[in-house]
Amino acid sequence: VQLVESGGGLVQPGGSLRLSCAASGFTFSSYAMSWYRQAPGKERELVAAIFSAVGSTNYADSAKGRFTISRDNTKKMVYLQMNSLKPEDTAVYYCNAQRGLRAYWGQGTQVTVSS
Predict the structure, then answer these.
(1) Cα–Cα distance for residue pair 27/99, rounded to 1 Å
(2) Distance between CA atoms of 45 and 16, rounded to whole angstroms?
């Protein structure tokens, strides 16, 4: 099983980034896919989730209206479009796959929002 994130980097406040997560080794379409983040000194928190059945989504309050999660079951990819980025969005962003009690994690990609 592999989840490989990409697309992180340094961006100015107000800018945008698109994170990608490439999945392999499991039945991707059957799993809920999520993005979490962890800032220095803070606990890992859910940013956004997209569910397998009908593609419904869920967002943290901090992400609503700015971030969009999407998935491509054919390509086994999940994306996080992040707009209007703020310094407080700075964190390592992790891709997560979950089905029942089974969960997989990627290695994370750093997002830094700074002028």
Answers:
(1) 10
(2) 20
The C-alpha atoms of residue 80 and residue 93 are separated, in whole angstroms, by 10
Phi, psi of 85 (to 5 degrees): -65, 145
Strand partners, 18: 81
Alpha carbons 111 and 85: distance in angstroms, whole number: 10
Q: How far is CA 85 from CA 23, 59, 79, 82, 113, in A?
A: 26, 15, 16, 7, 7
Q: For 50-108, what is each residue's pLDDT tens digit? A: 997 677 999 999 999 999 999 999 999 999 999 999 999 999 999 999 999 999 999 99
pLDDT, mean of residues 7-34: 97
Q: What is the mean pLDDT of residues 13-18?
A: 98
Distance, CA of 38 to CA of 56 (rounded, Å): 24
